[in-house]
Amino acid sequence: MTTLVLKSSILGEYSQSNQLIDAALAGKSNLIERDLAINPIPVLDMNVATALRSNGDDLAPELKAILDLSNQLIDELKAADQIIIAAPMYNFMVPTQLKNWFDIIARAGVTFTYTENGPVGLIENKKVTVVTTRGGMHKDSPRNSIESYVSTMLGFIGITDVNYVYAEALNMGDEPAQTSRDQALKELVELI
């Protein structure tokens, strides 16, 4: 089984989401790991949009590089049997780094298509586990926009088997933080 791991924390080795994923995957093989903070994806702008709408012919080299990156990311996604996404909460949303990944892999005719009944995702039979960490308590509240956003984006490209692992209260004292981390790690190991 091939596992695609997408890390998006800007905190490197101090990242709670990265630490949880690393602990759960210790000793596992067949991993495709992409740290979106260390190797950032271009922010969606006119150049990126132009490259993503092209078939690659007659693109300037900088735009061809964007299209090639998109193709590589989509190939990684297609090659994976399961995907683990680190989605720490920054200001009530996913990190920009993770949104940039979604922006560059959401391509009409490649990962989704438009039909007379609406959009249909083209990426199927993938299991996704989202590890979301946050300093406070936001699960089951209107402030928890991460689950809605990530599920919408994944569903748009055809992925509907999505589970969430929450590590909350990480800035609310040592004991609640440790309890939350321990529970999240247990859940993550069970899911993967």
Automatic annotation (TrEMBL):
Matching HAMAP family: Azoreductase_type1
Q: What protein name applies here?
A: FMN dependent NADH:quinone oxidoreductase
Give the protein's biological function: Also exhibits azoreductase activity. Catalyzes the reductive cleavage of the azo bond in aromatic azo compounds to the corresponding amines.
The cofactor note from the UniProt entry for this protein is: Binds 1 FMN per subunit.
Kindly state the subunit structure of this protein.
Homodimer.
- Quick one: which residues bind FMN? 9, 15-17, 89-92, 133-136
The protein's required cofactors: FMN
Under which EC number(s) is this enzyme classified? Answer: 1.6.5.-, 1.7.1.17
Provide the family line: Belongs to the azoreductase type 1 family.
Q: Which UniProt keywords apply?
A: Flavoprotein, FMN, NAD, Oxidoreductase
**Gene Ontology MF: a single term:** oxidoreductase activity, acting on NAD(P)H as acceptor
Its EC top class is oxidoreductase
